[in-house]
Design goal:
mainly alpha; 195 residues; globular
Length: 195
């Protein structure tokens, strides 16, 4: 049934991309890999590639906010039960300070990473919505417009390019995480000294 739904949405073109992005990011399993689909549409129909990338950003952002808000509402009971535990409070403090990196990296890099887990964690731990929204928007704009550019520029070689460079992308994600994490730690230490 999911495979059929995915085929129907793909046939709808840009509107299907929007709905598929919402479903995929809100936690509904879809039969196709969304990134490959966006590249495929960009290769087949370059005239709508940028339109599809924009709709993918909007749809993915809406889907992530749905999942985030569901986790936030459901997480209030969890937080109330674990609020007295020191470890839970330390993790919450760490996540509020640095955890959005764990959302940014999988939202940016088109390799299988458990983004939904981090989105749920951000919602449960009470991450401010506007910060979460900013991180998701930035990562998704870079990712989906980059994939549309690949599809338009490289054509049918786009997926081969991504498969060939999967380890480069993974290494880049790890390096980017390390650099951003280091910068955030240095910033936190600097602001702590000022206080």
């Amino acid at each position: 049934m999911l495979a059929h739904l995915t085929q129907v949405l793909v046939a709808w073109g840009p509107a299907g991309i929007l709905l598929l992005a919402i479903l995929d990011s809100s936690g509904v399993p879809v039969a196709a890999v969304f990134d490959a689909l966006l590249i495929f549409v960009s290769v087949q129909r370059p005239s709508v590639a940028w339109w599809c990338a924009g709709l993918a950003v909007v749809g993915s952002t809406v889907g992530n906010i749905i999942l985030f808000q569901l986790a936030r509402r459901g997480g209030q009971q969890f937080l109330a039960k674990s609020a007295s535990q020191g470890r839970a409070m330390r993790f919450r403090s760490w996540f509020l300070r640095y955890g959005l990196l764990t959302v940014f990296i999988p939202a940016l890099i088109p390799i299988p990473m458990p983004m939904k887990l981090f989105v749920i964690t951000a919602g449960v731990l009470g991450t401010p919505l506007m910060e979460f929204l900013g991180v998701v928007l930035l990562a998704r704009i870079i990712r989906y417009f980059g994939e549309a550019w690949l599809g338009v520029t490289l054509g049918h070689q786009s997926t081969t390019f991504l498969k060939t460079h999967v380890w480069h992308l993974t290494g880049s994600a790890v390096a980017l995480f390390a650099v951003l994490y280091g910068l955030m730690v240095l910033r936190h230490r600097a602001t702590s000294r000022v206080r």
